[in-house]
């Protein structure tokens, strides 16, 4: 099936990327570094290959975490004390998948167990709302403290910190990991990673999505549009989250605890499809409102509901093994995303007469 119509092709030819990064770290440290570092690449080296290379490093990190901590175990071990569309679409697609793989890598490092899903959640929600905001404002706005800069730096620091303290530091009760603050009420017996999760939600996720909604509201009001139609574009993502949470709650084998890798990878690719579909709608200037095609990644959830119904009729024995359904879910979302990515790349490169991973020489 095709994803881009004639109107979309005409719009792509006029599209110009717009973004603003207010981060002081990016302005005074990272951007000067990037300006110098980019010179090591020859002019014939396409920007998308740089993005793909960076994504491969992230996959390697998640894979190594899988090898050395295959179950994201939470039980502390017995140890001693311790530009254009060519930039916008591929980059955002890799970033959407990076939410899943970086969450898995950090979950392995910090022994987060089933809480690993919630670390994916706090990275995916702001990402989706930022993409939604970009759809309406036509400009990607990164605040003075944002996930792509300070958020990633914080994750890297946590990885290095764990090298010195050991992974059990995150899984222990707060009073054991930080005895000087053990007197603080209500949190002394809560694992450190749970406290970090709550702090991130309170001071990062909620303010960020509040700002996104406010910015979209101002644009919609200025254009005399419908805020209901704008909010409808969040429905597929909300349905994805609801489907996964209901599935995990009803799961007889507790898939969120026992199979976090497959669950997060499958959900991460479904999320990548939703993000990619919204970005493509923005690039092609599609009408604002609910995109029913985005719900394709949610089709397999009805199978899980049927399993629960058949289990009730057969003394708790589901018609299909849940591990098999989870594997099917993961394979389906990966295949759907790969079909979307390859189809869109093929359609755009053919329409514009360019290459995705090769710079086209201009005719003399």
TrEMBL record:
GO biological process terms, semicolon-separated: lipid biosynthetic process
Primary subcellular site in the record, as a coarse category: membrane
Compartments where found: Membrane
Keywords associated with the record: Membrane, Transmembrane, Transmembrane helix
Residues annotated as transmembrane: 49-69, 115-132, 152-171, 183-206, 226-250, 262-280, 324-345
InterPro entries: CHOPT
One cellular-component annotation, GO: membrane
Top-level taxon: Eukaryota
Keyword flag Transferase: no
Family of the protein in this entry: Belongs to the CDP-alcohol phosphatidyltransferase class-I family.
Protein's name according to its UniProt entry: Choline/ethanolaminephosphotransferase 1
């Amino acid at each position: 099936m095709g994803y881009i119509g004639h109107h979309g092709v005409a719009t792509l030819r006029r599209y110009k990327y717009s973004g603003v990064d207010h981060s002081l770290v990016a302005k005074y440290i990272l951007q000067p570094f990037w300006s110098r570092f980019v010179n090591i690449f020859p002019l014939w080296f396409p920007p998308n290959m740089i993005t793909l290379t960076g994504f491969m490093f992230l996959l390697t990190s998640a894979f190594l975490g899988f090898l050395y901590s295959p179950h994201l175990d939470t039980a502390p071990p017995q140890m001693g004390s311790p530009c254009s569309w060519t930039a916008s679409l591929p980059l955002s697609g890799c970033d959407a998948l990076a939410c899943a793989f970086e969450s898995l890598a950090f979950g392995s490092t910090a022994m987060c167990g089933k809480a690993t899903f919630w670390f994916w959640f706090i990275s995916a929600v702001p990402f989706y709302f930022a993409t939604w905001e970009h759809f309406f404002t036509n400009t990607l706005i990164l605040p003075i403290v944002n996930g792509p800069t300070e958020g990633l730096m914080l994750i890297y620091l946590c990885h290095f910190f764990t090298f010195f303290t050991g992974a059990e530091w995150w899984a222990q009760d707060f009073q054991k990991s930080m005895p000087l603050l053990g007197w603080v009420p209500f949190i002394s017996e809560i694992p450190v990673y749970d406290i970090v999760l709550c702090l991130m939600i309170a001071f990062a996720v909620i303010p960020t999505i509040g700002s996104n909604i406010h910015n979209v509201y101002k644009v919609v009001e200025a254009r005399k549009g419908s805020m209901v139609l704008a909010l409808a574009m969040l429905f597929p993502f909300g349905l994805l989250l609801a489907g996964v949470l209901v599935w995990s709650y009803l799961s007889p084998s507790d898939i969120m605890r026992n199979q976090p890798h497959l669950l997060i990878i499958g959900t991460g690719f479904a999320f990548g499809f939703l993000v990619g579909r919204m970005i493509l709608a923005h690039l092609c200037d599609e009408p604002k409102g609910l995109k029913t095609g985005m719900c394709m990644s949610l089709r397999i959830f009805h199978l899980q509901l049927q399993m629960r119904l058949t289990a009730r009729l057969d003394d708790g024995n589901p018609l299909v093994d849940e591990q098999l359904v989870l594997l099917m879910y993961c394979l389906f979302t990966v295949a759907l995303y790969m079909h979307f990515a390859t189809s869109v790349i093929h359609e755009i490169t053919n329409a514009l007469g360019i290459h995705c991973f090769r710079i086209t020489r201009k005719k003399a």
